Amino acid sequence: MFNYKNININYIRYGNPNKQAVVLLHGWGQNIEMMKPVGDRLTDYDVIIIDLPGHGKSEEPKEIWSLQDFVSMIHALLESLKIQNPILIGHSFGGKLSLLYASTFEVKKLILLASPFKIRKNSNSLKVRALKKLKTIPGLNKLAEAMKKHMGSTDYRNASPMMRKVLVKHVNTDITENVKKIKCPTIIIWGTNDAAVPIEDAYELESLIKDAAVIPYEGCTHYAYLERLYQTVSIIRNFIKEK
Prior knowledge:
Blueprint (H helix, E strand, L loop, with lengths): L1 E3 L2 E3 L1 E5 L5 E5 L10 H4 L6 E5 L16 H14 L6 E5 L1 H12 L4 E5 L10 H11 L6 H13 L7 H11 L4 H4 L6 E6 L7 H10 L3 E6 L6 H4 L1 H12 L3
Parallel strand pairs: 4-5, 4-6, 6-7, 7-8, 8-9
Antiparallel strand pairs: 1-2, 3-5
Helix pairs in contact: 2-3, 4-5
């Protein structure tokens, strides 16, 4: 656990601490388990996965946090671990935080997985339907079933009063101008059938970031990175390996 402003933040660190740090950030209403399928296949690197505040085993904020508050917490945690210039992998809300982090601090490389950045009405029900598709993929059915429970508990109607306010602040925060400041090499993995954040946003992100490329997954949803897990890991490994 890491204590930040009297909030206990849960994280795991495993793999090779002598190698490049790879930090994975999950989406809204999820937890560490949603990013472990990727992290578990990158253990020749220094892997850090965080339960974002109000998710998993991390305590929720004691006040309404902005996106920058989340980013400051992530930076403080990485500083405590003596990690500089990390590689960031972020899905959905975690991708939005990764974008903001990379626009503020030094990041070696950035991998975005269906990452919103504009003001757009978000629907957890769409994500739940996408999770149902994961149940049909060998090896991921148990993960999808477990995550359905987590997602149901973080739907706006069922969230705590504090996390509802944080969610509203998140979906009403546009970071387009911040995104334009990102300089690190970036890949953008996105499902063409993503109903939560449309594929058009991926190409707009690509146009805003100086060194970026979109990799579309035909027919995949908001969880494209899991639907084609082995392809995702292969792409990430090729992207982050030293030349």
